[in-house]
Structure formats: structure tokens, C-alpha cells
Amino acid sequence: MLQKDPEFDTIDKNAIDPHSWVNKYADYLFSYAVFRINDQEQAQDLVQETFLAALERQEKFEGRSSEKTWLTAILKNKIVDVYRSRSSGLSKEIIQADIERSDEDFFDQNDGHWNDQHRPAKLGIETSDALENKEFERILKACMDKLPALWLSVFSMKHIDEETTELICSELKISSSNFWVIIHRAKVNLRSCLQKNWI
Amino acid sequence: MKELTETEIKKIAYNCRKATYLIEKQQIGKITLREKLELKIHLTGCAICVTFMRQSAVINQMARKLVNADSNTLKLDEKFKERMQKRINSRLNKN
Question: RNA polymerase sigma-70 region domain: which residues (chain A) (predicted)?
Fold first, then answer.
């Protein structure tokens, strides 16, 4: 009887087969990009560019990672390019204005206390049970999409892709103090948006 | 001197902006010993920021899960895929 050897399968996966790329990975890469740049049309283009760039570099694929990991790494670089071009279009003044505007909303300017409408209330999501909640997930996604583009880039790179702070600052050309302020404001903003739409 | 310290503590105890900033910083980076102490003082007296801290951690986990879940895979337009495959094939044939 012929038995499928799982070991063999793995080796097989590490070979390269561009004819099957679209079929196997297009949806995955597309989703990967959409979640990170929140622009379907641009995400579509990035997937195509990824495949074409991968074709050019076929001989550099060493089979140490899977095809999927390799393609994802290429896409990831392209996403960072998008982040970079988005943030380089922003002047220091705009970055600062975004930050200050949100600050006034959330906290009292004098004593730094929570303003009434943004004060955190218990939502029943304080434990990780909330992770199973699809509705919560949907609202969080909508709230993430509403963040200023630079904030979403910083948030995604840090909390989803777990990049180092140094890398994020140098890729996006922001100072480390702005990085921390954005990390803070993005979270306060997301949390407040969740609360507003959850109740 | 003593008075100044008390005012300082008061400032920390009531400043939720600073406390939430330190909470975020602590989650992914390092805060100084002094900042740790400040945060501790604040959280002892501020249940609201304790709630913030818990929700903040859940948001991080949820965001990661949301983006990585297979069930959330989006579908790329079929016609676009066809055109893309054709482009790939034509490049392959050139080589």
C-alpha cells in the first residue's frame, strides 16, 4: 500500500513552482496586504509585484524556508515601502497636529484626567474570552481602519508583526519620542472606538 | 522639599494620560524604575486605568489574531488572478 510520507511533503514544499503561485498564495498574500495597508486596490498591485519580483529572484530561493514564507517576506518589504511613502508625505506639522488633536479629546488638558466620553468602562472584554468573539473582532477591524495611516502602520508593525522599535523608527523616519506617543494615542483611540461601538 | 514631592505624587496619582502612556510603553519596551513606581502608585488609586490596561492587552492579542486567522482570508478578484497568471506564464516562457 502506498503511504504518504509527511517528511516527503515538506521537502516537496520547498521546491519552487511559479505555475501554482497564484492558485496557492494569491488570496493569502492579498489578505496579508489588505489587513496591513487597508487599501484593496493597492494590495492587489502589491501581490502582483510580489510574484513578479519573486520570478526575477528565483535563483536566490534556497529552499530553506517554504515558498509561502519566502513570498510573504518579499511582500512584507513592499508593504514597508508603502508605509514609508505614506509617512514621507506627511510633514512634521501634520504628524504633530494629529497627535495633539487626539490628546485634547481624550484627556483633560490641565490635569491629564480622562474626559467623560472616553473614560474606560468595563466592557466584558477584560479577559481573553473576548478573543472568541467575532463581533468584537469586526468592530476592532473597523476601528483600526479609522486610524490615521501612519498610526496604523506603527500599530501593525509593532503589535502584529512584532518588529523592533528601532526598525520601525528608521523605516518610517519618525523619532523615538513620536513613536511612543503614536503607540499610546493609537491604543487610546482604538479602545475608545471599541467602547463607543460595543455598547 | 517634602512639599514638592507630595505635589509630585499628587500629579502622578491623577494623571491618567501619563499613566496610560507608561502602560503602553511597558507592554512593548522598558520603563525606568522610577516610572514603574509612578505607575504603581497611579494604578493603586485608579481603577479606570486598570481597566484600560486589561483592555489594552486584549486589543493587542485580538489584533494579532484578527490578522492571522485563516477564517479571515479575503478573496482576490478571479479576473485579476487570471491576468496575473498570464503575466507570470509569459515571463516564464521567455526564460
Answer: 22-87
